[in-house]
Design a protein that fits this description.
Layout lengths: L1 E4 L5 H7 L6 H17 L5 E6 L1 H9 L14 H23 L1 H4 L2 E7 L2 E4 L4 H23 L5 H13 L12 H7 L6 E4 L3 E6 L9 H5 L1 E4 L17 H13 L5 E5 L12 H19 L5 E4 L21 E3 L8 E3 L1 H12 L11
Parallel strand pairs: 1-2, 2-3, 3-5, 4-6, 5-8, 8-9
Antiparallel strand pairs: 6-7, 10-11
Helix pairs in contact: 2-4, 3-4, 10-11, 11-12
Family: Belongs to the glycosyl hydrolase 1 family.
InterPro entries: GH, Glyco_hydro_1, Glyco_hydro_1_AS
EC number: 3.2.1.21
Length: 359
């Protein structure tokens, strides 16, 4: 599986015309995708066009904490979203028309999302959960799988734009031609999932015209949920199963591939039983989704095999099954305990001790 774009925008494209804020990037990305398909199509059968557009747009062009660091809250993030979707769609159609018959590969876009658990069974809290999911996964998933922005996203941003005295919605329209271009550009559904949140309804409308104000839900992580290595990271395995079931129902039971799932910490310990527990419990919920809920989940990718560069924390957030010794000029790789555990999962297709497995 090869990803064409994982946040590595050439600086010149940002400097010359604003990167993902400009529609100029759509055809440039399409040309780049065609080049990759031409060069590597014989060897690559699973293509990802773009990884985590929510982070590219929300963190890169909304709150500005990721590169290129543009702060255009409630405007830039939505304009970026449109251009990312159009770029993905054009790349998909290029593969479909020019390369699929010869290379017999698959193409998809990766979208990340947490699960949003309603705090109570009250209708307002259940609606807040659904709204959060539509603003999180649906903002990018709905145009690809169902066509157009999610209705609740369109309605809320239009309403709040009008309340702010704007003549047009801050969410750019998708024309009928653009909707048709984007809809159906998937050979499978990709999910990056790490964590969950509790949510409840808010009675008041915040004045800020930004993504958080448009969403407008209370969101938190209970103290009793174990934490990963970053403040946004809480461990709640049932969220995985719940999210998979939601994706099945919302997008008509597509083939689903989990493209990222794993646990970070900031200790670097080799005795990472907490990571073993994470993989066991999250994969157990995946199995329940498959066998009980009949979710069409066909593949799972652990993140990550190595300690890697995490975008806002560098090498301080350690997420690999192999430790990288950055004090060693050779950057030695040292297996953590989780390596042995994950190896036996792959070898024996079992989440517990192989002798206790029932196949």
């Amino acid at each position: 599986m090869v990803t064409l774009y994982h946040w590595d925008l050439p600086q010149k494209l940002q400097d010359d015309f604003g990167g993902w804020l400009s529609p100029k990037i759509v055809d440039i990305f399409a040309d780049y995708a065609r080049t990759c398909f031409e060069l590597f199509g014989d060897e690559v059968k699973w293509w990802i066009t773009i990884n985590e557009p929510k982070q590219i747009c929300g963190a890169g062009y909304g709150i500005g904490v990721f590169a290129p660091g543009i702060q255009q809250l409630g405007v830039g993030d939505y304009q970026c979203a449109k251009n990312v979707l159009l770029a993905h769609a054009k790349a998909y159609h290029i593969y479909d028309k020019e390369f699929r018959q010869k290379n017999q590969g698959k193409v998809a876009i990766v979208i990340d999302s947490g699960w949003f658990e309603p705090a109570t069974t009250k209708p307002d809290d259940i609606e807040a959960s659904e709204r959060a999911l539509q603003f999180s996964y649906g903002l990018y998933g709905n145009p690809v799988f169902n066509g157009d922005w999610p209705a609740v996203v369109k309605d809320r941003i239009a309403q709040r734009s009008k309340q702010a005295g704007l003549k047009e919605s801050r969410l750019p329209d998708l024309s009928p031609e653009e909707i048709a271009l984007i809809k159906g550009t998937h050979d499978f559904l990709c999910l990056n999932h790490y964590t969950s949140h509790m949510v409840s309804a808010r009675s008041e409308e915040p004045p800020a015209t930004d993504f958080g104000g448009d969403l407008n839900v209370n969101e938190w992580m209970p103290k009793e949920w174990p934490r990963g290595g970053e403040r946004w990271f809480a461990v709640w395995p049932p969220g995985m199963r719940k999210l998979l079931v939601w994706l099945k129902k919302t997008y008509n039971n597509p083939e689903i591939v989990i493209t990222e799932n794993g646990l970070s910490d900031n200790t670097g310990t080799l005795e990472d039983d907490h990571r073993i527990n994470y993989y066991r419990d999250y994969l157990s919920n995946c199995l329940d989704a498959i066998y009980i809920d009949k979710v069409n989940l066909t593949a799972y990718t652990a993140w990550s095999i190595l300690d890697d560069w995490e975008w806002s924390t560098g090498y301080h957030s350690l997420i690999g099954m192999y430790k990288v010794d950055f004090n060693d000029p050779n950057r030695a790789r040292i297996p953590r305990k989780s390596v042995g555990y994950f190896t036996q999962i792959v070898k024996n297709r079992c989440l517990v001790d192989p002798k206790d497995c029932v196949h």
